[in-house]
Amino acid sequence: MYKLSAIREPVVIHKGLDNVYVKESRICYIDGEASKLFYRGYSIEELASHSTFEETTYLLIYGWLPTHSQLDQITRQLELHRTLEPQFLDLIRKFPAKSDPMDVLRTAVSALALYDPQPMTDDITDKTDKALAILAKVPTIIAAFHRLRTGNNPIPPKGNLSHAAEFLYMLTGRDPDPYDAHVMDVALILHAEHEMNASTFACTVTASTLADMYSVLTSGIGTLRGPLHGGANEAALKTVLEVGNPGNAESYVVDALAHKRRIMGFGHRVYKTWDPRYLILKKLAGELAQKKNQAKLFDTAVAIETSARKHLEGTTIFPNVDSYSGIVFHMLGIETDLFTPIFAMSRISGWTAHAIEYLEANRLIRPKALYVGKLGLPYTPIETRSGKAPE
Ligand code: CMC
Hints:
single chain, mainly alpha, 3-stranded antiparallel sheet, 16 helices, 3 strands, globular, binds carboxymethyl coenzyme *A
């Protein structure tokens, strides 16, 4: 009988891959103890105050802040690819109206490969261009599906609007309020990148097999979908709506913690203090609430936060980006199930930057699993099998 050969080195299992480094990177730095986040060396506060999503995308993917002509070039590239081909729109028309928009987005990004005569390429510039073409189309896909499922015709991009404003325009057919477009732009900047999170790692694994960029970005979308990652923004808003008013916040928090339920929009694997993105979004949420007469919603969120922090005092569980992003999107008039697709729409920049950076010194990602099962079991005829795992 075959015997398990002795393992020579002591095996350490890094469940959840906590503190495992998979590459060197120049893209993003997070100091989770000091509430700091930098994209390519620039602080998130500076980028949120002065940059645009297009510029931040350029910065993340190419590594430096673009000149006028470089910014014009990426802006034109996005404009050129934003429109969906009629046959691709026909495909979206066939999706069941009740589909979850994240399922639609995952399927649609994967399907874009079918309309690319040469999806596979080893050339890094070609890969980057393909990723930017996908990035350009994602808001159009999300908006088109939303319009179709609500019985409306998709609206083609207007042209000459920012990526953020085009998205709002394609959702409603109306020129967005400039402040709303600004808030969406900042939200896209804040979600664009976050080092080696689960979805970025998934993209990196797929890229390391030399797969095409459609596969790379589809992996990211699938991974972002889960409620512990991208899906938390929807859950956090649902909590605020369910709690309903500030007076109910304390009892909600006490009950949730007593029953070991997580407060959505709280806690983070890396931040052990305030998430700097949360601080920026909370300010925007407060401003939007005033503008849109949504004080009760905002005050309820603040009351949940205050109560949760009181009961979680002494822990490292602080509000994260998702505690106010959902509220911001809700106040912009966006359906709750579009929040995670918006996260994906923004994070494609970071996914692309990491996939390309990894490919520049590629090594197939292939970790190991420690085998703890049985070996050498005799093959038994079907009639004599117990239907259970062997003892
Ligand atoms: N509410 C209450 N308790 C919590 C929470 C929370 N939101 N988050 C963590 N804890 C507790 C958890 O129950 C555990 O307690 P115990 O040790 O008694 O079992 C302890 O904190 C450690 O939890 P963990 O899951 O091992 O910690 P983690 O580092 O893996 O957690 C997390 C990270 C994001 C999965 C978790 O905080 C969570 O589930 N939060 C709610 C979902 C959420 O807001 N996700 C968005 C993350 S930010 C966006 C993104 O990066 O995608």
